[in-house]
Each structure stands twice: as structure tokens, then as C-alpha cells.
Write a structure and sequence with these properties.
This is ABC-2 type transport system permease protein. Keywords: Membrane, Transmembrane, Transmembrane helix. The chain has 262 residues and is mainly alpha-helical. It has one domain. Helices cover 67% and strands 0% of the residues. It is built from 12 helices and no strands.
Length: 262
């Protein structure tokens, strides 16, 4: 499955690289667009010394910890949000009759390698923030766990978004609110949001386990909302649970799909 994915992705990469000037311009533009989110944070801290009790370096750590897995998923699986377009165009049937799985093909359909610039930017911010903070070395083991957990959670969200489009073919932007909107929400300390919203992204849609709960452990900070200490370590439990739900939703969407006949 992995080999098939990268073969399909490489095909699209070669097609994009056939126009090198356009390829590199789009890569730089992608990096510039991603930098606007970072610029907003820097503007905020140009006018204050803390945000909900978190320093600039701590906020940039949370930003990088959320953005790295998100941009990786944006690069590798975000094209799942094109399901409704394929249904409307009558092209989804071609994915279903091929020997490779529909999920795999849709994830790599029109693979956009120029989004890699966003991944680099997120990784640089995270590495800089870790270096700038006086972190306990004994807690840094959580960093790869955070990234892996975030990858599973965001991949699951995109899978759920794709599955929802089997029913919501006219409202792709609604499901994007949970993917791109989820990333926007996790870029900042959840302490800036209301208690009810934070409960929702902790106990219902587990976005808090992308960077907030494990990030508090790495930073050695207490949760302003008073959640128990063991919650910092539940990301590897919440992420597979969401992945299972996403897999079931995707299976149901495909099974109940009715061909356009075109």
C-alpha cells in the first residue's frame, strides 16, 4: 500500500516538475502563505509579552507542534476533500474499479508537492522553539509521540471529511471547517478559548491531543482548565479511536455510494 502510494505521488510530482519555474514559484508561494500564520503570532507578541499566560516561545512551540503534522497531512492526504467534486463529475467510479483502494487513489489524486514548503516552515519553527525553551530533556520523548498522534488525528479528520461528502456533496466547505479549522484552532494555547469549546475538542473531537495536552507535559505546565495529569498521555489512545471511527465512516460512505452511471 505504501509503495503504491508513493508511486502514484511520484507520478504527479514528475508532472509538476516538468514546469520547473512554475514548480518553484508555487513552492515559494506556499511557504509565504504559511508564513502569514506565523506573522500573526509575531505581531501579537510585538504588542504583549504573553498570551493567556504563555510566552512567545511557548506559543511558537504549540504552533510548530500542531503545524508539523497538519502540513504533512495537507501534503499527503488532503486531496480526500475532493470526493464531492468527483461524485459531481462522475469520475469517482474510475477510482472504485481500479485494483488499488479508493482511499489511496483519492489521497494521491493531483498530489501537490509544492506544499512541502509548509512542512519545512513548520519544522523550522518547532525546532527553533524547542531550542529557545529551557525544556526538561527527560520530557522530549513526547515530541515524536505528539507528531505521530497529530498525523493520525488529522488524517482521520480528512478521512471523515471525505466520507461526509458522500452525503454532503454540495457542502465541501462545511467539512473543511473541521480540517483547516481544526488546525487554526490548535495553533494557539487552548487557554484563550472558552471552557465548553475546550471540553468539546478534548472529549468529543480530540484536537487537544495534537499539541495541547502533550505540549503541557513537555512545557511542564499545568492545565488552566484543571484536567487530570494523566490526560497528557492519552493521545495514543484518542488518535486510534478516531482513526477507527474514520475508517468505519469511509467504508459506509463507499458502500452506500450510488454510481452516476456516467
Amino acid at each position: 500500500m505504501v509503495r503504491t502510494y508513493f508511486l502514484l505521488a511520484w507520478t504527479w510530482t514528475r508532472a509538476a516538475a516538468a514546469y520547473p519555474v512554475s514548480f518553484w514559484l508555487m513552492t515559494v508561494l506556499s511557504l509565504a502563505v504559511a508564513a502569514t500564520d506565523l506573522a500573526v503570532i509575531l505581531v501579537v507578541f510585538a504588542n504583549t509579552t504573553s498570551l493567556a499566560g504563555f510566552s512567545r516561545e511557548e506559543v511558537l512551540f504549540l504552533y510548530g507542534a500542531a503545524s508539523l503534522p497538519f502540513t504533512l497531512c495537507d501534503l499527503f492526504v488532503s486531496n480526500l476533500d475532493r470526493v464531492s467534486r468527483h461524485i459531481k463529475d462522475g469520475t469517482l467510479d474510475t477510482f472504485l474499479i481500479r485494483p488499488a483502494g479508493a482511499w489511496l487513489q483519492l489521497a494521491t489524486d493531483r498530489f501537490t508537492p509544492t506544499r512541502a514548503g509548509r512542512v519545512v516552515q513548520a519544522a523550522v519553527v518547532l525546532v527553533w522553539a524547542v531550542a529557545a525553551l529551557d525544556l526538561d530533556p527527560g520530557r522530549l520523548w513526547m515530541l515524536p509521540v505528539m507528531t505521530a498522534t497529530g498525523l493520525v488525528i488529522f488524517t482521520s479528520l480528512w478521512t471523515l471529511a471525505g466520507a461526509a461528502q458522500f452525503a454532503l456533496t454540495d457542502a465541501p466547505e462545511v467539512v473543511n471547517a473541521f480540517t483547516y479549522g481544526g488546525h487554526q484552532l490548535t495553533q494557539y494555547p487552548l487557554a484563550i478559548y472558552g471552557r465548553d469549546l475546550v471540553r468539546g475538542v478534548t472529549y468529543v473531537l480530540p484536537l487537544a491531543f495534537v499539541n495541547w495536552q502533550p505540549g503541557l507535559y513537555v512545557l511542564g505546565r499545568a492545565d488552566p482548565f484543571g484536567t487530570p495529569e494523566f490526560m497528557r498521555f492519552l493521545g495514543p489512545v484518542a488518535a486510534p479511536a478516531l482513526a477507527l471511527l474514520a475508517a468505519l465512516a469511509w467504508r459506509q460512505g463507499v458502500r452506500h455510494y450510488r454510481s452516476t452511471g456516467s
